[in-house]
Fold:
Amino acid sequence: MKCRVCRESAVIDIRRHNANFCADHFLRYCRDQVERTMKEFSMATPGDRVLVAVSGGKDSLALWDILLELGYEADGLYIGLGIGDYSDVSGNYVRDFTSSFVANRESEHANSLIEIGLRDSYDYDVPTAADVTGRAPCSACGLSKRHLFDRAAHDGGYDVLMTGHNLDDEAAVLYGNVMRWQVDYLARQRPMLPAENGFPKKAKPLVRLSERETAAYCVLRGIDYQVEECPMAAGNRHLEYKHALAASEEASPGMKQAFYFGYLREAADLFEQSAVRTPDDGPGLVPCESCGSPTSGDPNGQPRCAFCRLSQRAAGADPVPVELLKTKRR
Ligand code: Q46
Ligand code: ZN
Ligand code: ZN
Structure:
């Protein structure tokens, strides 16, 4: 197996591109794919201040590294979710990455890490919020993360908030949305959403890389990352969809990319145009009475955002350990 570029021996094959690469040319391929995606979808231009949401997993750490390699001013944002050992270990990977790959880098910018702990700052964690509110853990978690990402990007004056969603993630979300015809979600399934209604611009620059590629990127760069699955993910539909798509990709390499980019090219505009306008679309938004974030209010007619309702219910409740929550949910 020879590298497509230099003909030296290759370390990875990428079947959907019918290409093999040596280590150096694979790293360059990853950076090129990210740069191309950022340009194609107007995600950022040099000089923009970027906030990268990092979880300690391979995708977000690879993204942060690539952005710094490309010369962006990029700070990391880590949210401590309080999911037992999983969160403790994930936080350590983020801190180790920051001290070895970010802090010592020669750069005009002092790129740094922002950390927010749900337990320290809001007196709750994801398992406890799920238990108290009866929400699925990923729903309580997603709501908390979205709110804190938006707030940090807004308060810090960043031009764009970036997340490490890769091609496998986005194809699986698209597949789920199509299977259930979630047309409002389809209308917003874009790799870049502009800033609007008080929410920051959001971008997913890894949509041209698969998770196998982001893992290989980290290994070749010497980046250690959390390899364990989140203990709350079991039974999550997203994983089911990923497995279904992986089987199709195995049989026809390139299917996932064709599915996702074909959607963006052929159908995304149609869904966006036909989307039902909801109060969340704009003028109906009011500032949350507790935190000031834009919200359509709560069902009781009070101007309180979903995050404040969730955190106020969960704050101060007896902490529920991960294992106990899993037993209760069985
Ligand atoms: S961290 Fe949170 Fe994920 Fe764990 S609880 Fe679900 S959403 S699975 S990316
Ligand atoms: Zn090469
Ligand atoms: Zn609020």
